[in-house]
Amino acid sequence: MSPFWVTAFLDNAAAHHHESVGFWQDVTGYAVSAPRGDDGEFATLLPPDGDAYLRVQRRHRGGDRIHLDLHVPDPQAAARSAVAAGATLVVDRGYVVMASPGGFVFCFVPSPASVRPRATQHGRGSASRVRQVALDVAPAAYRTELGFWTAVTGWAQRASSVSDDFRFLVPPADHDQDRDQPLRLLLQRLGEADASGAVRAHLDWGTTDRAAETERHLGLGAHVLAVHPHWTVLRDPVGRVYCLTDGDPT
Q1: End-to-end alpha carbon distance in the chain
Q2: Which contiguous run of DSSP H or E holds residue 46?
Q3: Distance between CA 75 and CA 92 in Å, rounded?
Q4: pLDDT under 50 in the chain at which residues?
Q5: Could you tell me the pTM of the whole model?
């Protein structure tokens, strides 16, 4: 059951949740909703146009992570299909919490959404938007995880011109929501030095001017970790790693 929308959750350790939310509010230029949940642990980053696709959560225990919400008409039916593809059911709360074969947490939710926000225009004429979730997968688990996410999303695989260790998942050309999906997926095969551990994720931005966007992020408290020909790796003020890429934010 292909998702008609994908939301990325920035799950934060409780000790620095508010600092993390403040940075991501500033760097996206989005407003923050009123908190919700039994303990006020959830909030939404609200773009000035279109539907929300980034949310935040204060974790009761554990460190920072990313998880995904896959929006589907029938979460329970989608969960059954995912289990058949190799997922583990964690809990059903009306929305269904799952884990991929490699341990990556995601949820099936019924919440409506359909309009992708425009890229945000910044000073110096640059524009940017979070446009991709990269799943970082150990080599031994890569083939299984790629097959799993292809099955669960129903999206097409697309090779990367940059590296054989990258594989994109994008909505197929006949997908009703192709032009409006806010996020695509990238599965990245890690090196042998990262051969153990559960699948994790990071966010990738698309930018029209990576150098200008890097300076903007640095001014808001981020730090550069590495610069590559097509992307720059940064760390936010609480230690979350993400990338600025030359991908089209529109």
Answers
A1: 26
A2: strand 42-46
A3: 9
A4: 174-178
A5: 0.94
